[in-house]
């Protein structure tokens, strides 16, 4: 009899973390590797946020806190939702977790019963389906296409809903595609959801402030207030504030759901790091102007990467509305061989050969539920991106 639970056989480790680990191992072995696999800003956490954390330490704010967040942070989150999204929440409707991932996990564990279905547009963040499976539910994928700019259409959503559908997990701008839904595109989806009152919406807004050009961010509960009572709006400080390692995410929703999530958290991690919580208060309440400045840098990097990848033989790269990823198709490389004779049969073969030959680490599209594609994170320096995209061009040109 195995010591390992059968439920773990239903899931796999995070592929994006595995790619980052592999790249680090190759670097440690002396290889010249450029890692474009991690979804982590290369900017540092702003000094005012660091200073708030230091003050929290010197003032002795290092003890246990309330399970799902200190009052000061819940108040700051309520103010953020009002300021940025025109959504009114009370502190009793706020849950603070150890990163956005825990907020999603808590919600699914607290609500799913065997046989419940969770709709997930593909391509999707790698953790969504596995968290659904751990919660005892069944992930149901709604495929999109490059032609639709990787956005789910209203008719696709309508066709996927069944009496067993309990949640729709919705991510805009998207990881891995960067696709952002406009207000009108969201309204078409929320009109569908109004017709199916058994479906709850879990919206992942982590890349809210990383949007480009004329694109305007909107979130489902803002677009359709009638969905307010069955929406969990999740966000966090990791991407916009360059605080990935601080591990603070938060969600807002109906009190009954928030209480259930706190119950789960009370028996897993208990409170998030107290110091990180006080830092997050400063992040949300303090100066916000640097966010737009950094987003402008990301936009310039996006344009560089899209341009260079579209010049690579066999690749096609749409221009995303937000986040810091692109999701190019490598369909034009499938069936070709490397000079060493390795056949590129799928996107996993493509990224494996790219890493081995040119030392560029990206993530294959199968991990995100849509092939033949791969994800490139441009959350690194312009110099590194220019070199990496040049290597990708050289690799594609070498295929025969």
TrEMBL record:
UniProt GO BP: amino acid metabolic process
One annotated GO molecular function: L-aspartate:2-oxoglutarate aminotransferase activity
E.C. code: 2.6.1.-
Cleaved signal peptide residues: none
Catalytic activity: L-aspartate + 2-oxoglutarate = oxaloacetate + L-glutamate
Known cofactor(s): pyridoxal 5'-phosphate
Listed InterPro entries: Aminotransferase_I/II_large, AspAT/PAT-like, NHTrfase_class1_PyrdxlP-BS, PyrdxlP-dep_Trfase, PyrdxlP-dep_Trfase_major, PyrdxlP-dep_Trfase_small
Domain called Aminotransferase class I/classII large: residue spans: 32-392
Enzyme class, UniProt record, top EC level: transferase
Keywords attached to this entry: Aminotransferase, Pyridoxal phosphate, Transferase
SUPFAM superfamilies: PLP-dependent transferases
Complexes and interactors: Homodimer.
Similarity field: Belongs to the class-I pyridoxal-phosphate-dependent aminotransferase family.
Name of the protein in question: Aminotransferase
Species this chain originates from: Sneathiella chungangensis
